[in-house]
Amino acid sequence: MGFFGTIVSSLAEGFWMFYDTVWALVLGFALSGAVQAFVSKREMQRVLGDHRPKTVVRSSFFGMVSSSCSYAASALAKSLFVRGADFTSSMVFMFASTNLVIELGAVLWLLIGWQFAVAEFVGGSIMIAMLAVVLPRVIDVAELDAARDRLRTRSASRSEHDEHADVQDAPAPLPWRQRIRSRAGWSDASGYTISDVTMLRKELVIGFVVAGFASVAVPTSVWRALFLTGHGIFSALENVIVGPVLAFISFVCSVGNVPLAAALWKGGISFGGVIAFVFADLLALPLVLIYRKFYGTRLAIRLSLVFWATMSLAGLITEGIFTLLGLVPGTLTGGIATVHFGLNYTTILDVIAVIAFGCLYYLYKNASKFGGGGGYAKDPVCGMQVRTADAPAHSTHQGHDFYFCSDKCHDAFEAEPAKYTGGQSAHDTSEMTGHAETGPEASATVRDPVCGMNIDPHTAAGHATHDDVDYWFCSDGCHQDFVADPARYLSSKKAGSA
To answer: 291 and 157 in one domain?
Structure first.
């Protein structure tokens, strides 16, 4: 095969891997978006105050239903820690966010087999249990207190919202049973789905392209030199140690790691090595540097070593369990992607998924019509949807508020705000809150008294007058709620007036 032929074949292999998994990705992101919209982060913070077994289980659950983006997971774990959550429980949350999510298991199942999907959840549970036992014994409490104080000081110095005040002062969300039956709730869920896809699109593209080249263009001799085989336990041990090292230098996180894992499996890495590699998306070099920034060099090194050890050991134990049960599949010999265009279940499911994604996109673009969008903002850097009340980072630029999914996005914005604003604002910092006694011309924006969202009165979805005071609303839903019971939203703060 010539040079150009290799390139074409590699790109084709990457495309067919993507084609095999389109419907699973849409399903996973849709379910993740729905749960993110209906699960309150206030509840997470409230119940993660220690690392008892019950709390670890809760941390794992909350992680499973959160965004699978590694950067967002690390930022949210940091925010929970700063706000008072136990450090070990925060790290368990981060692990579960990237290793126990639906889309990860679905893509593993489709690309290399159901055994890997099951092993991911079995091994993930083992890894989280080990982390809960080991981490409190190797991380000094005084060091954690110093890191928490440093993070709080940093937040205050760059004028972020007070972490505790945000959570306490934000309007209480509606009960999830009420939200799940509302169009507003599902439009917010679609916002999470679309923003997660937007945020992870580069990771996915890189993952599938690199996996295609690794599968087609890398000679078998390279894989044989890299992965020790035929030496029993020593081969298994070497593979689970090398797997996280490859993840460290791959720079690919989250679901984007799975196509690479498929290529490594075809190349000869052991079953446990694949599992350890997928676990180790949290050891990608950019994330290790983020840990260093969050917690300091010494704590970041210790944390990374604990991660590496638990990931490798969990992969080794999982391989042992599956070997004893006779569930380790045979190594791939042909292409990773086996289904192409045609009247088959993959094509049918992909078509259904594309239609469903189109419906989600419609909900996302018309959120205000359905009463959604209140209390949310879009990260101007990565496009992720975040709750303004508990966003991991915040910045003010030219009188406008911007909210971010992570410190990584915040720092990118601070370095070059003009690149991401384009003359547009996310939220205005005006103290006008929901009403104006002199007309909308008196301020650039006002605050919706129902959801707290800052809006332009000239383009507001609704308007009402109560006691000779004007109020504007982000959506028909907020407008109708206010008209039905204005006293509910004005009794405490008179809609936020000074």
So the answer is: yes
